[in-house]
Specification:
Layout (H helix, E strand, L loop, with lengths): L31 E10 L2 E11 L4 E5 L6 H9 L6 E6 L2 E5 L2 E2 L7 E4 L11 H6 L7 H14 L15 H13 L5 E5 L7 H18 L2 E6 L2 H7 L2 E6 L2 E6 L1 H6 L4 H7 L3 E6 L4 E4 L2 E4 L8 E6 L4 E3 L5 E10 L3 E8 L6 E6 L9 E6 L4 E5 L1
Parallel strand pairs: 3-9, 3-10, 7-8, 8-9
Antiparallel strand pairs: 1-2, 1-4, 4-5, 5-6, 10-11, 12-15, 13-14, 15-21, 16-20, 17-18, 17-20, 18-19
Helix pairs in contact: 3-4, 4-5
Length: about 375
């Protein structure tokens, strides 16, 4: 079959629908555990005393900036890298540590790379069947075709990777990862190479496939929005350590420190000191939440926490109002405060530049941390 391909903006493959939902082959999920795992590359410390436990079938995102140790943990779990200390366990059995080392191909763990890592000299079908070496050729091809059917690319089994768009290559990589029915699936920034238009749709479909396979999944990303969309639980990393672990809602609403809060959203930031159990900022007094008297603090207020109110609150002037699609970003002039304050509102509610309005602040989106 001769198939025409062009770029991602309008190719035939780009418009190809994913396969029928609910048809991905399920697996028996395993529990993946890191116990006091540390690793370094020479003098560069990549991971320090990592303790993390993935329940069977759970999707966990390792979230953090580049160089914080996320990919190192993924490589250690896969067996591509051997940690300096600590243990990695699958269903309570040690696969890497003082007690021994199980090679990657014996762990039942799937790994999906950032650059897809498809073999250019193999057809799509051969790429997907590559990890099914323990099956005979006919059975391996049956399993590979089933995985390709689920991602909607069975028609292209005889094509080669170079003629596929980035989105299609990602789908082939996903098919290859799920074809052996791994008990744990590791994914290293799998969507970072896609443009925004493709990323959202491919990410949503991939999440659906992961839920269908029931595999325990560990996903590396530096994008907090992606982590919140994909994960049952987020492990936020910084400088080789897990700073905070919890559900997306828990971490977003209760960040452990200012740097974690900033990683998830923008803020208006004010300096102050605790006096009589609260802090004075340009938008009023804020509860200090038990921080000791006299402590210097930073107060973080999300732009979306500032709301229009009819009577209470503070009178401010709207300096600018910028339309950003479903919402507007406003900058406010507050009496006695030289810097501007940012506010986010639905477009239908946003006043025009120059308007004088009254605002109040939702305390659920105010965070106070010692400086």
């Amino acid at each position: 079959m001769q198939t025409e391909f062009s770029d991602t903006s309008g190719n035939q493959a780009g418009r190809k629908e994913w396969g029928e939902r609910g048809t991905a082959a399920a697996t028996i999920a395993a529990r993946l555990s890191f116990e006091h795992v540390s690793h370094s590359y020479g003098r560069i410390v990549a991971a320090t005393d990592i303790n993390l436990d993935l329940a069977p079938g759970e999707i966990v995102c390792l979230l953090g900036p580049s160089g914080c140790g996320k990919t190192t943990l993924l490589r250690v779990a896969a067996g591509v890298e051997r940690q300096n200390s600590g243990r990695v366990l699958l269903d309570g059995l040690e696969v890497s540590g003082p007690g021994g080392f199980v090679p990657p191909e014996k762990r039942g763990i799937g790994l999906m790379f950032q650059d897809f890592a498809l073999f250019p000299h193999l057809t799509i079908l051969e790429n997907v069947a590559f990890g099914l070496s323990e099956l005979d050729r006919a059975e391996a091809h049956r399993e590979a075709r089933s995985a390709l059917q689920r991602v909607g690319l069975l028609d292209y089994e005889k094509a080669y990777p170079h003629i596929l768009s980035g989105g299609e290559q990602q789908r082939v990589a996903l098919a290859r990862a799920i074809a052996p029915r791994p008990s744990v699936l590791l994914m290293d920034e799998p969507f970072s190479g896609l443009d925004q238009r493709l990323r959202d749709s491919v990410r949503d479909e991939t999440l659906t496939v992961l839920k269908e396979t029931r595999a325990s999944s560990l996903l590396v990303t530096h994008d907090p929005e992606e982590a919140m969309q994909m994960a049952d639980r987020i492990a936020h990393m910084r400088n080789g350590r897990i700073i905070q672990s919890g559900s997306p809602r828990e971490i977003y609403n209760n960040p452990v420190d200012a740097e974690t809060a900033r990683f998830f959203s923008d803020f208006n930031e004010f300096d102050g000191a605790v006096e009589n159990g609260s802090v004075d900022v340009p938008l009023g007094r804020v509860a200090a939440n038990g921080i000791a008297e006299g402590t210097k603090v930073e107060v973080l207020v999300r732009p979306s926490a500032i709301e229009l109110c009819s009577q209470d609150g503070f009178e401010v002037m709207v300096r600018t109002s910028r339309f950003l699609g479903d919402h507007c970003l406003l900058t406010l002039a507050v009496a006695g405060y030289e810097k501007t304050v940012r506010m986010k509102l639905r477009d239908s509610e946003a006043p025009e530049s120059g308007a004088v309005v009254r605002v109040c602040v939702n305390p659920a989106h105010i965070f106070v941390f010692p400086t």
